[in-house]
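Notes, p. 3: input format for complexes.
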Amino acid sequence: MEKKVLVIDCCIRKEKSATAKLLASYLEKHCAQCTIEKLKLYEMDLRPMLLEDLEKRDSLLLASRYDDPYFTLARQFRDADMVVFAAPFWDMSFPSLLKVYVEHICASGITFSSSAEGGLQGLCRAEKFVYISTCGGYQKGENEGARYIRALGKNLLGVKETEEFIIDGLDVDPTQRESRLQAEIRRLMA
Ligand SMILES: Cc1cc2nc3c(=O)[nH]c(=O)nc-3n(C[C@H](O)[C@H](O)[C@H](O)COP(=O)(O)O)c2cc1C
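Output follows (190 residues plus flavin mononucleotide):
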């Protein structure tokens, strides 16, 4: 059976996005034989979790109504064989829209379970996450966006591995942005 790959596209600048170009190359090279489901977060009208959302979610979970449409995104995420996140580096991590999406997929009883003692067990089926990003400057140490997604997989959702494809320094010389991007894409996808 073909591998089911869920792509979380948070490339807000759409066709102008360097991250979107890196994502396209990754999918062409690594996912040609896969079934791809792509979520364009910037077209989804996702809203952050406010009190009424929290209350609705908690009452559904309390009643074990995991099949409710409210949890469609969470079930889709849980059932993917692999999840590819694509998001530019913004303000030391990624656009807030991606965090809003994460709020929609983290649901106790669907993507993870928690015991009375406070222990957590991930319920997601993905063999790995892939984190794709581009960044204007050069990051000292680990990319904070990638670090968060890795921790989310490892510590909450049960996905032990996160593979990264990150291109740094794209805004250092704007005249070289596109040529540097293309050269780095060739190197990463060789
Ligand atoms: C709102 C915003 C915030 C950004 N924050 C950072 C930052 O904190 N550090 C950095 O090095 N570059 C930052 N950048 C530059 C982007 O990381 C860089 O241009 C990246 O290649 C954009 O990816 P995209 O073409 O896929 O949108 C920021 C850009 C935007 C628009």
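Strands lie at 4-9, 35-40, 82-86, 112-114, 120-122, 128-134, 162-167.
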